[in-house]
Amino acid sequence: MQALRGITVLLVxxxxxxxxxxxxHLPLPGPVVGMLLLLMALRxxxxxxxxxxxxxxxxxxxxLLFVPVGVGVMTHLGLIGQYGVRIGVVLVVSTWVSLAVxxxxxxxxxxxxxSAPP
Length: 118
What we know:
By secondary structure, this protein is mainly α. The protein has five helices and no strands. About 85% of the residues lie in helices and about 0% in strands.
């Protein structure tokens, strides 16, 4: 029952985020606004319990979410054969760039924290 309440809370917050995004012409997509609403709503204990229950359920069945990806790969196997090397290079390069930027930001934050007075 808690999981059903939790999924209801998630869907209501996503819908409210979509309505707010479209109604107020926000530059953010509706699901992002819904996630911000969820972040605020998680301060309420009963919301934490409900969403926690549905999160446990979804994590237990996470492997099912990879089935559509596998079907998509099998459907477009010709494209992957044609552009696979390029896709692989882009994935590797973008991963390394993301890691380098993360390290750079972390070092800058640690340096600022060390130089700040106590």
